[in-house]
Amino acid sequence: MKLPQPLAEAQELLSALPPQQQLETLIEYGKNLPPFPEEKKTEENKIPGCISMAYLTVRKENEKVYFEGYSDALTIKGYLALLIRSFSGMEKTKFITEAYTVVKIFLETTQLQQQLTPSRANTLGNILKMMVQRAEELQ
Amino acid sequence: MKFKKKSEERFMDNFPLLQKKVYGKPLVYLDNAATTQKPESVLKAMDSYYRECNANVHRGIHYLAEQATMAYEEVREKVAQFISAKREEIIFTKSTTEALNLLAYSLTATLEKGDEIIVSLLEHHSNFVPWQQLALQRGITVKYIPLTPSGELDFKAYKQLLTPRTKIVAVTAVSNVLGTITPLQQMIQEAHAIGAKVVVDAAQAIAFLPIDCKSLNCDFLAFSGHKCYGPTGVGVLYGKSQLLTELPPFLFGGDMIETVTKEKTTFAEPPAKFEAGTPNIAEVIGLGAAIDFLQQHPKRKEHLEEVTQYAVKALQQIPEVTVYGPKERGPVISFTLENIAPHDITALLDKQGIASRAGHLCAMPLLQEFNLSGVTRVSFACYTKKIEIDSLVTALKRIVEVCR
Hints:
The complex is a heterodimer.
Chain A: H1 5-15, H2 19-31, E1 54-61, E2 64-71, H3 74-87, E3 90-91, H4 92-110, H5 112-115, H6 118-137
Antiparallel strand pairs in A: 1-2, 2-3
Helix pairs in contact in A: 1-3, 1-4, 2-3, 3-6, 4-6
Chain B: H1 5-13, E1 21-22, E2 25-26, E3 28-29, H2 40-52, H3 63-82, E4 90-93, H4 96-108, E5 116-120, H5 129-138, E6 141-145, H6 155-161, E7 166-172, H7 184-193, E8 197-201, H8 213-216, E9 220-224, E10 235-239, H9 241-246, E11 257-260, E12 265-267, H10 281-296, H11 300-316, E13 321-324, E14 332-337, H12 342-350, E15 354-355, E16 357-359, H13 364-369, E17 375-379, H14 386-403
Parallel strand pairs in B: 3-15, 5-6, 5-7, 7-8, 8-9
Antiparallel strand pairs in B: 1-2, 4-10, 9-10, 11-12, 13-14, 14-17, 16-17
Helix pairs in contact in B: 2-10, 3-10, 4-5, 11-14
């Protein structure tokens, strides 16, 4: 299965980096995340099981899904930024069908989860789960 | 403990794990408030026990059982001597947490509805939640000693909280978050003046301050082996002899009885009354070796104070860092970095070979007082070197750069 362009690029880069630079690169990705509106920081948009504050919204336009997100944890913010860049604008059905597989490939190749604390590593799973669930709920 | 380079290296050799490299970098272990590393002597003592005299303690009438019992009971003597107590006042538990739960259950069983317990807001959850929960179950009131802005106990407020209904005061000797050293002596005097008993959580103090239960005159005191260079799975509860005799047992089972019939059970005298079941024998023996290690290094307090003050000063020179807690403190520093989540800091430090800890540090009520949801904590031990603090500062400056 082909990875979306941003995820494929990140996969190539991160796989070649030692642990410290992997995390630093992830933090760099977060700096490009567009600002998240304050009024959307609600209980409903909160990413569950995340020890820091993290939010996610999904909308649909012409059968394509678009995401917005925020986290006050920089590593999580970086990961969110990467997923949002990779999946925003993707056909809803394609996203729902392929997201889990492509992210699994990405995480396995980069071993990114091993660089994070267990609670942070769990959060990665929760983010994707929420993205897919919310996309499925969209009419 | 002041070391010249060569003796410093020799000293480090005592701790096999400190030779380790993580992510290709020398390990800088600054998570000692969570657990300390173990010297070779502790590892050897536990290994020898299993190789040379493993048997269940007490009641066994064979050579190995006698050897194991002797070794186990010698540690009781050693601990008693180390904290100025009598051997029958030393109870082995699995941890400080278990010791404090034992007390919370047994002590509150003797209280009446409307009686009061005073707990400080500095407490680790293990000296907070047991009192809170038992009080809820038994209709007892819990009152909390507030803190000053710098994180010290508000002594004036404490005195005002004491009433004739106060039966128990539970307080830490050293905060695991702020490093605050509490004025135990005065607190105990005040509590005793109105007839209350004082429970001291010495988990963070045991490797740092000299603990003398006799002169302190505390009623109960608890600590863990693993925070003073011993193994996990062993804790100590000290209790004044008379009080332990009066206190009902916590756990029932083998070793804690005198006679058992179908109708009733009579209990053994302390300490056996509070040591139901097979204890963690190897861990107790490991603790004995840790006590020996502590006694061989009487200047550990001076060393820890020196390293801590050096670290506070160094951290305060990074403009983005906020250090919490009073000036005079135990070997614990909690801090935040502007706009960077504590877990991010810890994860990034880790990748530079530095072990620290982040989060609420099992002291959520304390963090709430400072309007914080988490901090990063570095904590020191007798093997911590100033050069490691320099590495920490360099690593933090890099983190500030990367996250800018």
